[in-house]
Design a protein that fits this description.
Layout lengths: L10 H16 L5 H6 L5 E8 L3 E2 L3 H11 L4 E4 L6 E2 L4 E8 H31 L6 E3 L9 H11 L12 E3 L1 H7 L2 H10 L5 E5 L2 H9 L4 E5 L3 H11 L4 E5 L4 H8 L5 E3 L2 H4 L6 E5 L4
Parallel strand pairs: 6-11, 7-8, 8-9, 9-10, 10-11
Antiparallel strand pairs: 1-5, 1-12, 2-4, 3-5
Helix pairs in contact: 1-3, 1-4, 3-4, 4-5, 6-7, 8-9
């Protein structure tokens, strides 16, 4: 598969996902409907269009799905990832062998709809905190196997990536603290292992003060009320990075940002983003 991939996405990941998705959809016998009803030499020309307003993500990856099925398929994008489009906007034009093209249609649409859904919801969060100085972060709450693509989609929506994997950074959470025998013990062991920077999840203001006393680099303020967040930010000042997390809805995110926290991590943007509606329709003049 020769192509220019979006930044941060590996060819190995793309091939694995596309091949698995196509195999799942085609089964052992292939697209029996297309093969039975469409002449082998028939061609298909169509347009892929947005059925409502959205932020696009995964457009080139959708094109790769078609190319994976047939090198004879021509894919012409009409916009690019990260762009907000309105209802009816043409995202891409596609032309090629009808059987192959229709066999790839659902897999291409599934990928594009899912990633654009993530980008669209992410953009709503980013716009909700505009002007506060707070940065929206994603999390590891992604569909298994899709993390690179999901985190790419959040970037297209305007968020920044948090940890990609468990080996990216130390984030000591409540279960780590409990299993280690205490916050200070967990922090000291992480530091002795040579890791850094070190972030600690804090559920209370007392834990925030304890984390600062341990010399951590960031505190994750988990499921705190707005008043607790304000107090935590006051306690921390600018000594370390502050991150708010837990129950971050669109309705609450601006109030969270206005407490002065520097970053806000949102699991919903990858875990619960609804897919957008995109169609591929026959258009001989495409």
């Amino acid at each position: 598969m020769k192509t220019t991939l979006p930044e941060g996405i590996s060819l190995k990941t793309v091939e694995r996902i596309i091949d698995a998705a196509l195999a799942e959809d085609l089964g052992e016998g292939g697209d029996i409907t297309s093969n039975a009803t469409i002449p082998e030499d028939a061609r298909f020309s169509g347009v892929m269009a947005a059925r409502h307003a959205m932020v696009v993500a995964g457009l080139d990856l959708a094109g790769l799905v078609f190319k994976r099925v047939s090198a004879d398929i021509v894919w012409i994008p009409e916009t690019e990832d990260g762009v907000r489009v309105q209802e009816g906007a043409v995202l891409a034009r596609v032309e090629g062998p009808a059987r192959a093209l229709l066999s790839a249609e659902r897999t291409a649409l599934n990928l594009l709809q899912h990633l654009s859904g993530i980008a669209t919801l992410t953009r709503q969060y980013v716009e909700a905190v505009a002007g506060t100085g707070a940065v929206i972060l994603d999390t590891r709450k992604t569909l298994p196997g899709y993390r690179e693509l999901a985190k790419y989609a959040t970037r297209m929506g305007g968020a920044q990536n948090h940890r990609m994997r468990l080996d990216d950074a130390v984030l000591i959470k409540d279960n780590h603290i409990a299993a280690a025998g205490g916050l200070a013990t967990a922090v000291n062991r992480a530091r002795e292992a040579g890791h850094g920077p070190i972030e600690v999840e804090c559920d209370t203001l007392i834990q925030v003060e304890a984390a600062l006393n341990c010399g951590v680099d960031a505190v994750l303020l988990d499921n705190m009320s707005i008043s607790q967040l304000r107090e935590a930010v006051h306690i921390v000042g600018r000594a370390v990075r502050t991150e708010a997390s837990g129950g971050v809805t669109l309705e609450k995110v601006r109030a969270i940002a206005e407490t002065g926290v520097q970053t806000i991590s949102v699991g919903r943007i990858t875990q619960s983003a609804p897919a957008v509606d995109i169609g591929l329709d026959w258009n001989p003049g495409a």
